[in-house]
Design a protein that fits this description.
heterodimer, A: two-stranded antiparallel ribbon, 2 strands, B: 379 residues, alpha/beta, pyruvate-formate lyase- activating enzyme, 17 strands, 19% strand
Amino acid sequence: MTRDELLAARTAAWADGERAALAAIVAALRPSAHHLGDALDWIEDIAARDGVQAASILDRAELRAALAASGSAPDRWKRWKDALRRLRYPRLAAREREFAAAVRALGLGRNVAIAAPPAFEGGGLTITIRAKTQDELGTTLDRFAAAHAAGALARLFALLD
Amino acid sequence: MVRRNLVAVAAPADAWYEPRVFTPDAVLVERGAEEAPMTRRCRARLPGVPFTVVADRRAARGRVGDDFAAAKRQLVLAVHRGSFLGYCPAGTRGLRCCNYLMMSFATNCPMDCGYCFLQEYLAENPPLTAYVNPEAALAELAAVLDRHTGRRFRIGTGELADSLALDPLTDLSADLVPFFAARPNALLELKTKTDAVDGLLALDPKDRVVVSWSLAPAAVVAIAEAGTATVAARLAAARRVVAAGYKVGIHFDPMIEHAGWEEGYRDLVAAVAAALPPARVAWVSMGALRFSSGLRAVVRRRFPGSRLLAGEQVPGPDGKWRDFRPLRVDMYRRIRSFVEAALPDVPLYICMETPEVWERVFDVPPPGEQALGARLAAR
């Protein structure tokens, strides 16, 4: 199914104004049919959860800001879809922000990346350390040891719970 | 939506209550099943319903097309020619299971729960079908039980159908209960959302039969369990089977997050504890609301605007979508605390979850499936 076919099929029961509002966004940001399908699912889910119409979702300030931002269509679509995802998954998004803040608070530097499992589902943390020299690695490991000794890593694991 | 012709009215806790019997719009009898005792019973109990003999049960599919709700309103009676016995699909790799076997005496169900996996699982073969040759199933099962006399089996009939929804028509329980009552190494679980227990009451289960109810707060029943008995009616039925000598199982599965869910489940557990003596509760299980991707698409199509899909559900390692882990672990923990306070010493387990989730909920690693199965079978 093409993007336009999907849009027509999934919005057939919408009010004309709502359909036109989404069609304008799709025309401006040109998402793939797959991405548009995700967005339509999320709009329907938010509408069901909050008891609102699609129009009021599309008119949210976060979405209007992403649509009006500068940049390429794919970049703006990514911002728009991320904003919609935050509306669809508010508690998951909040936990992701908390996790990112907890990682930053460790002060481990740019050579370290700590990732939670996708959507906090299954598995443990994934820790990536990049080092060009043995000294650089040693410095990073010392920072890790200090964070561990201070109990600062516990916050990350608590957020998985 | 299926018409609410099974049970739909509230029953005061101790009031006399008469369950209503499911009445299909039509019955199709596959050739070869016409003279089966079960067919005769159905014919006698459905005097106003047209019966048609068909050469092939697939004719039923032609009548209803892709209308899943319509497929629930006609009953097919057929001889089952394959195996009746199988492993519960909850034993998916990576998930903790309870070593459970299932026997399929029917497929589909007259009720229409919005979350039911049968909407996807039976999409290609949806007509409500009852198998008229339970004697073949029991012969198959007897051979297994006789070969493994040292093992204790838990066997359920509520996987592909509600265990009791058709019982007022088929009298299947009159075959099953005496069979299991005479089998020291097997325990039968009849799972239902009905209150159709009349057929059980005169039978002696000899502690070999557990009648289980899937329960959810009334707010969930109202939005997601069309055609089922009310919670009050289910608990009234549970009291009746306990009085008749049965044990009862309780399944808080699926747990559905909704406004006021914590109070809803707290009150529900309290209602169970008020209705049933803990010593007669064989087990309690918990399970998260879960959807395959395919089922999500079906629910979206069949129930537009359903709030069932609007939770913060994400795909897990087994491909099923559940509330993201911290949310459902929180639900499990709270419901666990309600159950342990209200029903002390009743075994509590989780269905279709990873060992990591189990450990987060119970603070200890899960038992092995053999150990868990044996513990439940010993109840």
